[in-house]
């Protein structure tokens, strides 16, 4: 059964249009509530978190009302990164978690994504069940069965302490100068707290959210300011998050970028040296250099579809402890979804154990030139159904032959067609 509204990462769109509308989100909460209450022996509980978008207040209230109308209690945790909601859903023994965020998208967009009670992205079957309830008339349960809401006051502190437990107890970050860019997003508070409490000296960017500046010229999708700040302050490295805190990009002391593929390679090499790595999952977008680098280490590598939910499914299928995407979603054994803070802490731990700079650690990895563009199309999902499009793709693949590869796919989160070319030379990839 194909899903009508859910994409690779929940439901997403422009606020006020189509589905990201308070009336629709109210019913989404009600529908999810009925899926949760079906067969339940106790009143279900749902954790709701959000990023810093102004529209988060509106959608949070709508979701809360919808869930309560179906007899579900709500735990509100406020602005926290997506992986924190996965963690809190597990530790609070909630039945589900909901994140209100559009990740790296501009503030005009927002989205709703779900976690199951064990902290994993909601299975397709449950998303389909929610969609089926959306087609029914909305009826409120009896007054004595209505849900209620309360705020979890120490939610941020709980997550900060969890993050710190993943860093080796015999190490700290004293003497390191980090530039941390939180994209004016969900990590603006907890991110600096984690690194500061471990002893690092911080220079901060993107930590003054006003509801409309999330991802605006800052964060993992706009790292230029971070690179300049690292160079000008002579910092040891830079750390960039996206709006909901599940993507990580690093900048070494010379201002050079490390994307998700290179970070996975660094982590994999360290885990393999410890004898705790059975294999790695990447995606169809992962740079060929990652695959070849892992082969040189003798580490099995498989590719999944794009989307951290598909990466995680492949990790579980193959029993691999590490996976991620070029964009910076990195899943480690410590959490059930992409977690930028935890991934950054793992890289910092490698630096502290080895006594090497990030620039020295990355020696030996040489990515193939890639060009990635996004073409805005209303019907991107069906672009490749057109014979003319198929002919153009075939012609490009023939030109690349054994010199590179081409990937054309619709975005799972935006009305975009994504075109990626990887080649032996930057000129060939650009052409």
Coarse shape: globular
Name the structural class: alpha/beta
Strand ordering within the main sheet: 1-5-4-2-3-6
* Secondary structure tally, helices: 14
Strand residues, percent: 15-25%
Task: Tell me roughly what share of residues is in helical segments.
Answer: 25-40%
Q: How many beta-strand runs?
A: 18
Task: Characterize the biggest β-sheet.
Answer: 6 strands, mixed
Radius of gyration: 22 Å
Poorly predicted ranges:
none
Mean pLDDT: 94
Q: Would you kindly provide a written description of the structure presented here, covering whatever features stand out?
A:
The strands form four sheets. Strands 1-5-4-2-3-6 form a six-stranded mixed sheet, with helices on both faces. Strands 8-7-9-10-11 form a five-stranded mixed sheet, sandwiched between helices. A four-stranded mixed sheet has the order 13-12-14-15. The protein starts with 10 loop residues before the first strand and ends with a helix. The chain has 14 helices and 18 strands. It is globular. The model has no long low-confidence stretch (mean pLDDT 94). The protein is an alpha/beta fold and 431 residues long. Helices cover 36% and strands 21% of the residues.
């Amino acid at each position: 059964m194909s899903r009508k509204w859910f994409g690779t990462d929940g439901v997403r769109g422009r606020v006020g249009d189509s589905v990201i509308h308070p009336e629709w989100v109210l019913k989404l909460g009600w529908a999810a509530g009925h899926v949760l209450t079906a067969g339940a022996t106790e009143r279900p509980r749902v954790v709701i978190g959000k990023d810093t978008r102004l529209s988060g207040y509106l959608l949070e209230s709508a979701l809360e009302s919808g869930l309560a109308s179906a007899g579900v209690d709500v735990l509100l945790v406020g602005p926290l990164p997506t992986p924190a909601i996965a963690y809190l859903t597990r530790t609070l023994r909630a039945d589900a978690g909901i994140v209100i965020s559009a990740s790296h998208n501009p503030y005009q967009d927002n989205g709703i994504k779900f976690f199951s009670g064990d902290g994993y992205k909601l299975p397709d079957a449950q998303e389909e069940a929610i969609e089926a309830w959306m087609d029914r008339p909305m009826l409120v349960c009896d007054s004595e069965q209505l849900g209620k809401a309360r705020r979890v006051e120490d939610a941020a502190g709980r997550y900060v302490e969890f993050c710190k437990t993943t860093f080796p107890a015999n190490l700290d970050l004293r003497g390191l100068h980090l530039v941390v860019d939180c994209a004016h997003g969900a990590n603006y508070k907890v991110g600096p707290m984690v690194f500061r409490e471990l002893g690092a000296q911080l220079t901060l960017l993107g930590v003054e959210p006003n509801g409309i500046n999330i991802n605006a010229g800052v964060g993992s999708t706009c790292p230029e300011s971070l690179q300049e700040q690292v160079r000008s302050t002579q910092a040891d490295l830079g750390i960039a998050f996206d709006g909901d805190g599940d993507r990580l990009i690093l900048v070494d002391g010379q201002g050079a970028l490390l994307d998700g593929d290179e970070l996975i390679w660094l982590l994999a090499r360290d885990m393999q040296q410890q004898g705790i790595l059975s294999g790695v999952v990447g995606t169809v977008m992962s740079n060929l250099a990652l695959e070849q680098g892992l082969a040189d280490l003798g580490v099995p590598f498989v590719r999944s579809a794009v989307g951290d939910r598909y990466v995680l499914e492949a990790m579980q299928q193959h029993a691999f402890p590490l996976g991620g995407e070029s964009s910076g979603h990195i899943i480690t054994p410590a959490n059930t979804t992409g977690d930028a803070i935890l991934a950054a802490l793992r890289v910092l731990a490698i630096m502290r154990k080895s006594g090497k700079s990030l620039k020295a650690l990355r020696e030996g990895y040489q990515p193939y030139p890639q060009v990635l563009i996004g073409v805005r199309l209303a019907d991107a999902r069906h672009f490749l159904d057109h014979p003319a499009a198929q002919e153009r793709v075939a012609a490009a693949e023939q030109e690349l032959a054994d010199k590179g590869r081409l990937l054309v796919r619709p975005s799972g989160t935006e009305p975009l067609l994504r075109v990626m070319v990887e080649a032996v030379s930057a000129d060939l990839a650009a052409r």
